TrEMBL record:
<dbReference type="InterPro" id="IPR057247">
    <property type="entry name" value="CARBOXYPEPT_ZN_2"/>
</dbReference>
<dbReference type="InterPro" id="IPR008969">
    <property type="entry name" value="CarboxyPept-like_regulatory"/>
</dbReference>
<dbReference type="Pfam" id="PF13620">
    <property type="entry name" value="CarboxypepD_reg"/>
</dbReference>
<keyword id="KW-0479">Metal-binding</keyword>
<keyword id="KW-0121">Carboxypeptidase</keyword>
<dbReference type="GO" id="GO:0004181">
    <property type="term" value="F:metallocarboxypeptidase activity"/>
</dbReference>
<dbReference type="GO" id="GO:0005615">
    <property type="term" value="C:extracellular space"/>
</dbReference>
<feature type="region of interest" description="Disordered">
    <location>
        <begin position="415"/>
        <end position="462"/>
    </location>
</feature>
<dbReference type="GO" id="GO:0008270">
    <property type="term" value="F:zinc ion binding"/>
</dbReference>
<keyword id="KW-0482">Metalloprotease</keyword>
<dbReference type="GO" id="GO:0016485">
    <property type="term" value="P:protein processing"/>
</dbReference>
<dbReference type="Pfam" id="PF00246">
    <property type="entry name" value="Peptidase_M14"/>
</dbReference>
<comment type="similarity">
    <text>Belongs to the peptidase M14 family.</text>
</comment>
<feature type="domain" description="Peptidase M14">
    <location>
        <begin position="23"/>
        <end position="338"/>
    </location>
</feature>
<feature type="compositionally biased region" description="Basic residues">
    <location>
        <begin position="424"/>
        <end position="448"/>
    </location>
</feature>
<dbReference type="InterPro" id="IPR050753">
    <property type="entry name" value="Peptidase_M14_domain"/>
</dbReference>
<dbReference type="InterPro" id="IPR057246">
    <property type="entry name" value="CARBOXYPEPT_ZN_1"/>
</dbReference>
Length: 462
């Protein structure tokens, strides 16, 4: 089939299934759209705010889940963040389109979308910088061009240079030993960051995110960590150098899933740049300190990549439909990537859930921890791995696991208390960042499901 016919058919199909309007959404319009989607799909969505911008605008998130507002054990949390740079607006519009699409297709019983929404908790923050957006949009209306107008927040700060720098610590630890994950925040971190950054940090600490993408513009490429090079500045100059994480092959695959499902990103030549496969290590492109993507990886269990989605940071309204068609499949496939590797429960002998237990994979110097419900998620490429679960006062347990290309493999751990009772508290190099393991009473899944079904049936459609 010729490309032209295929595009025509796609457009036709699209018109039939998702009658959405393509326009730029100012703040009030964005809020209305989020609530509109929620009203159309009240049982599988929730709108919540993670905080406010400098000018007091809410940072609204739209959540998709079969139990909105509830973490179901073994169901991973995933997020999209758009418009962190206020003048890079395509991500914001694509996330609104995605929200309408997920809702429509869920209502149409599209099996792929139903499975995604029922098996995943998806959080969509269309704009992390609503104040910057308003400045950029107003400039656009008055035809004031300027590459950077509206990029920063209302205090003039670039939010993607505003997260605590944990790279310096990890590069030190890689050489000298020390924690390889969940690096602690500086004591006075709240005074060092902007309100939008603080809201996002509190958000990503409160939910056990597994996978994320952060949507930007100004290039077309999928960018993966690290963003900061090992020697960020040498005699005043920023040093560009490939700076891989211990999960480099996995990150490359995640980036490629996006670039190859995207209409043209994978071709590599875009906006006058060339990136093989349409992907790049952040630091090998240009070194950036205090970015959000590295912070996610170093402070939480979340694997985040940065998607640069358009040459023009503020594309004309007429471009939005083509952009949506170019990104739609990629946005869905990337969400589906959260279902790979291994996951499971970490419990003690009495089936109490162990929170903050550490899951290490031999050969990958980056651990993950179990969340508040005792469940953990470890994204891995297909292969055979030696995996160890540890928790203070418990004996470690090691298993060999073969991971296939499909669904994640379920690997539960049941740790035995160490005997004799553990010596005075000392944290090993791999212990969780909060250094504690809290047993939690397990509520049998069936009973919990039933309880939630009851809640669900009592809900009144809005
Ligand atoms: Zn940007």
């Amino acid at each position: 089939m010729s490309d032209l016919v295929s595009i025509f058919l796609q457009l036709l199909l699209f018109k039939l299934v998702a009658p959405v309007t393509f326009r730029h959404h100012r703040y009030d319009d964005l809020v209305r759209t989020l609530y509109k989607v929620h009203n159309e799909c009240p049982h599988v969505t929730r709108v919540y705010s993670i905080g406010r911008s400098v000018k007091g605008r809410h940072l609204y998130v739209l959540e998709f889940s079969d139990y909105p507002g509830i973490h179901e054990p073994l169901e991973p949390e995933v997020k999209y963040v758009g418009n962190m740079h206020g003048n890079e607006v395509l991500g914001r519009e694509l996330l609104l389109q995605l929200s309408e699409f997920l809702c429509e297709e869920f209502r149409n019983r599209n099996q792929r979308i139903v499975r995604l929404v029922e098996g995943t908790r998806i959080h969509i923050l269309p704009s992390m910088n609503p104040d910057g957006y308003e400045v950029a949009a107003a400039a656009q209306d008055r035809d004031i061009s300027g590459y950077l107008v509206g990029r920063n927040n209302a205090n003039g700060v670039d939010l993607n240079r505003n997260f605590p720098d944990l790279n310096t610590y990890i590069y030190y630890n890689e050489k000298n030993g020390g924690p390889n994950h969940h690096l602690p925040l500086p004591d006075n971190w709240k005074n060092q960051v902007e309100p939008e950054t603080q809201a996002v940090i509190q958000w990503i600490r409160s939910l056990n995110f597994v996978l994320s993408a952060n949507l930007h513009g100004g290039a077309v490429v999928a960018n993966y960590p690290y963003d900061k090079s090992l020697e960020h500045r040498v005699r005043g100059f920023r040093r560009t150098a490939n700076t891989p994480t211990p999960d480099d092959t996995l990150f490359q695959k995640l980036a490629k899933v996006y670039s190859y499902a995207h209409g043209w990103m994978h071709q590599g030549w875009n906006c006058g740049d060339y990136f093989p496969d349409g992907i790049t290590n952040g630091a090998s492109w240009y070194s950036l300190s205090k970015g959000m993507q590295d912070f996610n990886y170093l402070h939480t269990n979340c694997f985040e990549i940065t998607l640069e989605l358009s040459c023009d940071k503020f594309p004309r309204q007429e471009e939005l439909q083509r952009e949506w068609l170019g990104n739609r499949e990629a946005l869905i496939q990337f969400l589906e990537q959260v279902h790979q590797g291994i996951k499971g429960m970490v419990r003690d002998e009495n089936y109490n859930n162990l929170v903050d237990a550490v899951i290490s994979v031999s050969g990958i110097n980056h651990d993950v921890t179990s969340g508040d419900h005792g469940d953990y998620f470890r994204l891995l490429l297909p292969g055979t791995y030696t995996v160890t679960a540890t928790a203070p006062k418990f004996d470690p347990e090691t298993v060999s696991v073969t991971v296939g290309p499909g669904e994640p493999k379920l690997v539960n751990f049941q740790l035995k208390r160490s005997t004799p009772p553990a010596a005075p508290k000392r944290r090993g190099p791999n212990s969780g960042h909060r250094g504690r393991v809290l047993p939690k009473k397990v509520q049998p899944r069936a009973a919990r499901k039933k309880e939630m079904m009851m809640k669900q049936s009592q809900r009144v459609p809005a």
